[in-house]
Structure formats: structure tokens, C-alpha cells
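[User] At your convenience, examine this fold.
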Amino acid sequence: MRHPHPPQPPSPERSAELRRRFAEEARSERPDLATLCLLVGAEGDGTLDEAGLDAAQVELDRLAGQLPFRPGTPRAWAVALRDLLGGRYGFHGAGADYQRLESSLLHEVLRRRRGLPILLSVVWIEVARRAGAPVYGVALPGHFVVGFGAEPGPGGGSLEERVLVDPFDGGRLLSGQDAEVLVAGATGAKLRPSMLEPAAPLDVVARVLNNVRAWAARRPEQSAVGLWAVELALLLPAHSARLRYERARLLVQRGDFLAGAGELEAYAEVVGAVDDDAAEVVRREARAARAMLN
């Protein structure tokens, strides 16, 4: 099966500006989920200019304006979103969407009305939020969904107090058993109350970038995509130190041996504080990268 070519990246100057704005938004008091996801999209697709960014926000506003005025209960909100987005506009996902980078770019998901569970959930969340719904993301293992109702406190609370929907399945309302089946299918584990806690915007964006990195990792010829996804993830206020190692290896993979070796050595210093043997493995990688220069 031939896969479509992913979109081309922006110019270095445009990329630098997008990253500045991404870092600023991520560090703001109340990071805006739609803005962050659209900036990810602009980093992945050089055709998404300022007018395109504005148009995507306007489309979210337009969709929100077509919802009934404050339908009432969490279930009524969930049904209204399902009928509008899943029914009237046909937003949903399919297995083939996992093969496309566009399925992780919000502006493309709005255009195609197709995407990964987490990006379709972003559409549901942002449209519902604009209309005044009590809505939040739920990062179930392996399958992101959306919750309507009062946000559960620590520990999750009971499913009966709120409604979960699956935007990937057109906004299907989920019973407690449905949620258990989703988790069991993804991980083989049981649904725990902590899995139902609301996902913070920055956690959602980190997971979107994880998906982009995973997509690129399966396609060595797309290492440039993996690199920008890692570099955006490094701009988030909280991130794993191991992302530095991933970035270093991508630099080496792309032929930037000197920069990659320097990054590997810096990471080895961090690791060496807790695990000497692991640090030595990384140092050997750095020496091998430097040897490629000779």
C-alpha cells in the first residue's frame, strides 16, 4: 500500500517563530490547547500560514455556534456533540488514519474530518468548550476519549457521575464496560479510577507529539519529522531528559555527527549521576559518532 507523502516543513525562519510562540504559549498561565495543537500543525506543514491558523480557530468557533444553547445534562451535551460532529459533519477515525501524519495535525483533521483519537478529541473538547460545556480530555491508555460533566477529583470518582464519548467512533457514548474494554484492548489491564482523571492541555500536547515521534520512528526516511517533534516536546515545561538522547540519535542519523556526539556526551553526564554503566554506553555512541567525521 502506498502511503501519501507527509506535508513539507516550513522555512527555518518560520519554524523559529513558531517555536518561540509554542514555548511562550506552553509556559503561559493557562495554555490554550487549540493554539498549541495548531502550532504543532504549522511546524509539520509549511503551507499553514497565519491566515490558515486563524481559519482553523474560526472553524472551531463556527462549529460551536451550531450547538443547541446549553442543552443541560452531561448526557445532553454528549448527544449534541455526537449529533453535530459525528453525525452531521462526519468526524471519525479509521485504521488507515494511523498511517498518515496529517491525522496528528489539527488543521488537517478539521479539513478532512478524520484523525487519530486524540486529535478528534481535541476537536470535541474545543468545540464543546467554546459552547460552554463541562468538558475535558481523558487519556485512557492507548485510546484518548472525552468526558462531559463535573471533572472528577483525584482518584477518578464513579463513571455514573459523568459521560464518556469516543470521538474516533463518531462520538459514541461509552458505558463503564465500554471504557473497560477499550483499556483492556490497549493494555490488557483493568480500568483504574486514576485513568479517568482529566488530561491537562500540556499533557495532551505531549501525547500528540509522542504520536508524531512514533509515526516518524517507524519511517527512518522521515527523521526530519521525528526531529521537529522531539524539539517541540523539549520546549514543554516538563519533559523527560531522555528526549535529549532521542534528539542526539536523530542528529547522528541525519548525518550531523558533531552536534549529535556533543548532545550524546551531554546526556551521558546527566545519566552518569545515577547510572555509570548506562552513561558509558552513551559515551561509546558519542565516540562512534565522532569517528564518522574522519
Notes: The radius of gyration is 20 Å. Confidence is low (pLDDT under 50) at residues 155-160. The first strand starts at residue 135 and ends at 140. The chain has twelve helices and five strands.
